[in-house]
Design brief:
- The protein has helices at residues 2-19, 30-41, 46-58, 77-83, 87-90, 105-116, 162-184, 203-211, 217-229, 295-311, 313-350, 356-377, 391-401, 403-408, 428-447, 504-514, and strands spanning 62-67, 72-75, 121-128, 134-145, 151-160, 188-193, 198-201, 243-251, 257-270, 283-293, 387-389, 412-416, 424-426, 455-463, 466-473, 518-521, 529-536.
- The chain is of the alpha+beta class.
- It folds into 4 domains: 5-160, 2-Layer Sandwich (Beta-Lactamase), CATH 3.30.450; 185-293, Beta-Lactamase; 295-380; 384-540, Heat Shock Protein 90.
- The termini are far apart.
- The protein is rod-shaped, with a radius of gyration of 44 Å.
- The chain binds flavin-adenine dinucleotide.
């Protein structure tokens, strides 16, 4: 019965042969023709059946049709090309003829479980061509069902994906190699997209991410490069200007400072998305960011510098207190001098007591002379050149210089720097002297206090275009009545006035105002005293 049907259908094909030159390959079993007819032509349109057959025959993929036991009943031309077998050699044989015996049994079991359950299966098998060469076949098997839903045939489609596989393996290997190299490199490396999102990073980068408590290192370092080294960062989506070896400093909540020399190169990557396939111009912008830590070298340098500063500290303190005393004396002379000048002017205008005028002028002259002498004796400070100053760095120096006094008084320092502060322009020695004064005040306040947990909180911050330094102690505080007076010259509120001329805060204020800023008392919210220094980044 089956044969008869096959013959009939084969007969139809023969009819088609009469009309069309290209036909089924010699030896193509009748069942295949049957299958083709049932696939697309519903058996009553021989022309469609023929076209469909030619499509399959000339398809650029190895096609085979098997019976339900995987015995090959048809193979197309591409099958011959891929496997190296001529179809006469494989028709009637099981597909296992292609097996290289290197595919795990479990793969075949999965294959058969799917196809016998009338599902399409796609997977990879290791095949062997007629010449004995192994190749990786990407195979899809679709069951062909009869009218009763029973599997009668399988349609197998496969192509040689050895080259793609090799390429993928090589890519994976090279990526692994690259990652290993990056991971062992002692520098922070990150590849960023145009919106500064991290596409690839290395172990050092991940370590820094942990140290920054989840803050993206690339973001923090790039911002520091812009703030501290003046680099101009591109807008999101834009290409930036490359920069090389710009050193920045990061200050961590723990109080530690670390230095990094940063470089960035913007690259044009070929766009990978399918939509950009025909647009050769389309490029994705990426940024290769590299930061090499120079903390150890910096520490060495800093240690040497602190030693140098410490050696000069005695001189600094001597000059500071001399300056304070001379400033106080000048101030004290200035007041009566102003008074004498006013009286002299009054007497000259009124014409009375004229005999007093020469005396007064003589007194004024000697007072002016004394004032000028004192002014001339004030240690010079104006010649110091302007520099780019990192506020955190100067604060840290002062704290290091004050270590002995802090320890002696049992004071704990809570140093809370803002990680990346922009530099400001100023006179380093003046700024250092001002901070020294404020820290000294806090130490004296705590030494005069009887609290058990003596602490000074020192914090830096950036508030828009202003750098803010806050020095807060939990010492004796300042009485409400004295709060307005502390910035007046010669006011001294310490219990022990030895060595205090009452010029510390006025001089600190003068230094801040020289830099376009100010020193003020923070509104009292609790115990102790809080002084706030504000220094504008851009001075007029
Ligand atoms: P086999 O004894 O043939 O089979 C191994 C396991 O597969 C068996 O233990 C059993 O679990 C399962 N199995 C086998 N036959 C059946 C079945 N009729 N019904 C249910 N489960 C069964 N293999 C290749 O290696 N390369 C190919 O390119 C390839 N192409 C195929 C194309 C088609 C359309 C089909 C239907 C199968 C194809 N196969 C191919 C699978 C092939 O028929 C063999 O199953 C396989 O090669 C393993 O052969 P074997 O001699 O090692 O073991």
């Amino acid at each position: 019965m089956g044969n008869q049907k096959s013959d009939n259908i084969a007969g139809n094909v023969v009819d088609v042969t009469d009309r069309l030159p290209a036909l089924a390959a010699v030896g193509t079993p009748a069942e295949i023709v049957d299958a083709f007819n049932r696939f697309c032509a519903q058996g009553d349109d021989p022309l469609s059946a023929h076209l469909f057959f030619q499509m399959v025959e000339q398809a650029p993929i190895a096609l085979s049709i098997t019976d339900a036991q995987a015995t090959i009943v048809y193979a197309n031309r591409m099958f011959e090309v891929v496997t190296g077998y001529r179809r006469e050699e494989v028709i009637g044989k099981n597909e296992s003829i292609l097996s290289n015996q290197a595919t795990p049994k479990s793969v075949y079991e999965a294959l058969w479980a799917a196809v016998t359950d009338k599902q399409t299966w796609t997977g990879k098998l290791v095949n062997r061509s007629r010449s004995g060469d192994a190749y990786l076949a990407e195979l899809t098997i679709s069951p062909v069902l009869d009218q009763n839903g029973k599997v009668t045939h399988y349609l197998g489609m496969h192509r040689d994906v050895s080259k793609v596989h090799e390429l993928q393996r090589r890519l994976t290997h090279q990526k692994g190699l690259l990652e290993t190299i990056l991971d062992t490199a002692p520098v922070v490396v990150a590849l960023l997209d145009a919106n500064r999102r991290v596409l690839l990073d290395n172990q050092e980068y991940k370590k820094l991410l942990g140290d920054l408590r989840g803050q993206e290192p690339a973001e923090v370092l790039l911002q520091a490069v812009a703030d501290q080294a003046g680099a101009v960062l591109p807008q999101p989506g834009e290409r930036g200007d490359d920069f090389r070896n710009l050193e920045v400093r990061l200050d961590f909540a723990s109080g530690a400072s670390r230095w990094f020399v940063c470089s960035a190169t913007w690259l044009d990557d070929p766009a990978l998305s399918a939509s950009s396939y025909f647009e050769q111009q389309t490029r994705d912008i990426t940024c290769l960011f590299i930061a090499s830590e120079t903390t150890r070298q910096r520490r060495e340098h800093e240690r040497a510098r602190t030693e140098e500063l410490r050696a000069g500290l005695a001189e600094h303190l001597r000059v500071g207190s001399m300056r304070e005393a001379l400033a106080a004396a000048s101030f004290q002379i200035q007041q009566p001098l102003n008074l004498i000048n006013a009286v002299t002017a009054m007497l000259s205008r009124s014409g009375s007591n004229e005999h007093l005028l020469p005396v007064l002028e003589q007194v004024a002259q000697s007072a002016r002379c004394a004032y000028d002498t004192l002014q001339a004796a004030l240690p010079a400070e104006g010649d110091e050149p302007l520099r780019h100053i990192n506020l955190n760095e100067v604060v840290k120096e002062v704290l290091e210089l004050s270590t002995d006094r802090l320890l002696k008084n049992g004071i704990v320092i809570d140093w809370k720097p803002t990680a990346a502060l922009p530099h400001f322009t100023g006179q380093t020695k003046l700024i250092r002297g001002m901070i020294m004064n404020l820290v000294d005040n806090a130490i004296v306040a705590l030494s005069e206090s009887d609290c058990d947990d003596k602490a000074i909180v020192v914090e830096t911050a950036q508030d828009g275009g202003v750098l803010v330094l806050r020095i807060c102690d939990n010492g004796r505080g300042i009485d409400a009545a004295d709060r307005a007076k502390v910035f007046e010259p010669l006011h001294c509120g310490w219990s022990d006035k030895t060595g205090h001329a009452g010029m510390g805060l006025p001089l600190a204020q003068e230094t801040a105002s020289r830099h376009g800023g100010s020193v003020s008392l923070q509104d009292d919210e609790g115990k102790g005293c809080c002084l706030v220094v504000e220094l504008p980044l851009a001075q007029g």
